[in-house]
Amino acid sequence: MDRLNVAIIGCGPAGLAAGLLLARQGHAIAIFDQFAAPGPVGSGLMIQPTGLAVLAELGLAEAVVLRGARIDALRGIEEHGACVLDAPYAALGLPGAFGLGIHRASLFDVLHAAALAQEGIAIHAGHAVTGSTCTHEGRRLTFTDRPPSAAFDLVVDASGWRTGFDPAPKGVLPFGALWASLPFVPGDPFAGNLLEQRYRRAAQMAGVLPIGTRPEVGTQEVAFFWSLKAEDHAAWQATPLADWKAEVLRLWPALEGLLARITDRRQLTFARYAHRTHPRPVKERMIAIGDAWHSASPQLGQGANMALLDAWSLARGLAEGRTLAEGLRLAAGWRRDHVWLYQWVTKLFTPLYQSDSRWLPAIRDRVLAPLSRHWPARGIQAQLMSGLFGFPLAPLGLAPPDYEALAESASRISLAASGLPQS
């Protein structure tokens, strides 16, 4: 395909990854972001095998692994102490497989630095996109308090679930979460290699996710999160911080030391989530990727990973399509089944962990949890949690990451940085 002038709306993981991949194909990329200084929003996330496969193709997997924290399993325990969720990556059957907990800022920094160093990418901050118009010359973007852009051959909407290009209802979920990034202290009474959660039925959930080290912080961190209904957020803001901590500790007493590091309510950020799928992710000279196409609750930890897969699929579609329209059709077609599958799986799973229901968590604890400990349910559960359910990599020409090589390389670099002798 001829060299295209491409506009990307949004400077998050989806937009940056798409920009890198398309620029390396020789296309001219302009990324527009509404913020004066593009940056991440939120605390921790999980990089799954699917996302790491794309980062490996970008040559960025090693850098991301160095900044993140190795996660060997997801473990959930209900309020009386019974383990009701145990999903180890070892059940995938991939040698050395692991998940990666990482601060959003660390993932952003790796992708953003690569984009700044990549020839053919221009990042325009302070450009709030309000819409677009399409003519025979191409598609122009319109902005708040700025004249329209020049005509682009292609516009990629990577602006997230609040996208203005899908007029349908956003499907905002009743439950959100409070997030905080906190120092990890040696001796903390929780594992450093697990995503741990505690549940009181499905109405309350607390979680701790190791997220590695940000260079600007210099110490290991964990992401703490607490589920909260949006309608209860105002009441939470009016509740004394000590009273809220006492409520958390009734569910998970071992968090006392971690909660002591929260001294100001401003350390906690309330995040909202939506469950929606854009009915037409492709139209003339335009495609939606990431949360602008499909968004869901973070219960399965797939958001950034699905976005990276979308970016890869877009680049591959443009490389193989004989025309722009065919390339976009291929890109969406390769991803459609996996997107549909995870939208439905997430919709079914989320109420088991975040809802006011009393009987759904009972089914989770008394039926699904015992079944998940045995073959083949154990492997299926690991596939679901890792993003590999439905075999999304092969149709995109991707292979699982070489975990053993990544772990060995990260260990070698860490030893070199510490000045210790290497064996």
Features:
423 residues, alpha/beta, FAD/NAD(P)-binding domain, D-Amino Acid Oxidase, Chain A, domain 2, 2 domains, six-stranded mixed β-sheet, 12 helices
Report on this structure:
The chain folds into two domains: 5-69 and 104-169 and 274-403, FAD/NAD(P)-binding domain (3-Layer(bba) Sandwich), CATH 3.50.50; 175-270, D-Amino Acid Oxidase, subunit A, domain 2 (D-Amino Acid Oxidase, Chain A, domain 2, 2-Layer Sandwich), CATH 3.30.9.10. The strands form five sheets. It has a seven-stranded mixed beta sheet with strand order 6-5-13-14-15-12-16. Strand 1 (5-9), helix 1 (13-24) and strand 2 form a beta-alpha-beta unit. Helix 1 packs parallel to helix 8. The longest helix is centred in the C-terminal third of the chain and has 30 residues, at 324-353. The chain has helices at residues 13-24, 49-57, 61-67, 104-117, 233-238, 241-251, 256-259, 303-320, 324-353, 359-371, 377-386, 403-418; strands spanning 5-9, 28-32, 44-47, 69-71, 73-78, 83-88, 99-103, 121-124, 129-135, 138-143, 154-157, 175-183, 194-200, 204-213, 220-229, 269-271, 276-277, 282-283, 286-288, 294-295. With 423 residues, the chain is α/β, with parallel strands linked by helices. Helix content is 35%, strand content 24%.
Can you tell me the CATH superfamily of the largest domain? FAD/NAD(P)-binding domain
Shape: globular
| Structure annotation, total helices | 12
The share of residues in extended strands comes to 15-25%
Number of domains: 2
